[in-house]
Write a structure and sequence with these properties.
Elements lengths: L6 H5 L1 H21 L14 E5 L7 E8 L10 E4 L1 H4 L14 E2 L1 H13 L3 E3 L4 H8 L11 H10 L13 E3 L1 E18 L4 E6 L13 E15 L5 E10 L8 E5 L14 H20 L1 H24 L7 E4 L5
Parallel strand pairs: 1-8, 3-5, 3-6, 4-7
Antiparallel strand pairs: 1-11, 2-10, 2-12, 6-9, 7-8, 7-9, 9-10
Helix pairs in contact: 4-8, 5-6
Length: about 325
Amino acid sequence: MPAFRPESARSCPMTARITLALATLLAAVFAGACGALPNYVGEQSTDQGVVDYSAMFGASFTDSAFVSHAMPNKLLRRVLISPSVAMPDSRTSSTPTSTNAVSSAGASVLVALLGQWGSDVIAPAALRPMLKRACKDPCDLNNATWLEQALWLASAAPNPSDALRRPTAALPVTTLRTHWKSVSAAVLWNATKRQFEVLPTHLAKGRSRCSGMKLSIPVNEFASEVVDVRSGRILLRVDTAKSVEQSGFNARWQIQVRRSQGVYRSRVRNVYCATIPANWRAELVWRIARARAAHAAQLRALVAKGLQPLREGSQSTKRPRPAPLTTGHQP
């Protein structure tokens, strides 16, 4: 049905134009009062919004380390691993109330790495027969922790049959895994590249355009101490967490956005801020989940980097300078 037009508008083109302009203005005022018109921030919206998620990958969340000034020679000859590594995901090492968070894949990575470095990996259960021979009944160490038993054995008179079996170092590992973590994300506008960039909140230099946004991403975590069993000294402590690096696809993504749903802050919600995490879940999460082999390799590199100062110091007769305590972001 044709739109109704007054008779005066038909007879006078100028009147028609004025009437149309007034109708458009009244519609805009009415729509604005209802909160339908966007309150644009910066650039006007276009049909395509370019969002770069690459800063979410390889981001450091925790990075602290302590290295002792003196490393005993051949420290890694026989390494006693903690029960959390010897029995990952078991009731004794990873209960819901336990602080240990060691996965089976993470335990395999550590044991394989120590074996490649030429270390004999010893389980805590191997201490029991040695303890039985060295500690006469009644022995007060039966209820001691595995680390306390190892320290006591190192100070006791060696049994000839156990002299070459006693551990030289102990690794009380508290965290060793790759797990999906909900990360607070910020959205910034890059005027030079004319695109939106998504990155962890603690790395953002500026106020995020989207508040309260969270994205799930795999994070590699490794936290452990290295104890010299013979002296009881803590030689190294490392606590690091880093999101996985993704190279199998381009993290830069183009989102199709209708012009009426652009980048703006309306009175109800920010439509684009809802689109960014939805796109992450729909287009990127499944691709990230498929790269498990790459994530395992990255976890191994993270563990090797954390233990590398210990390996270098124990292989050399020189005493390195004290390494300062470095602390990274811990959001």
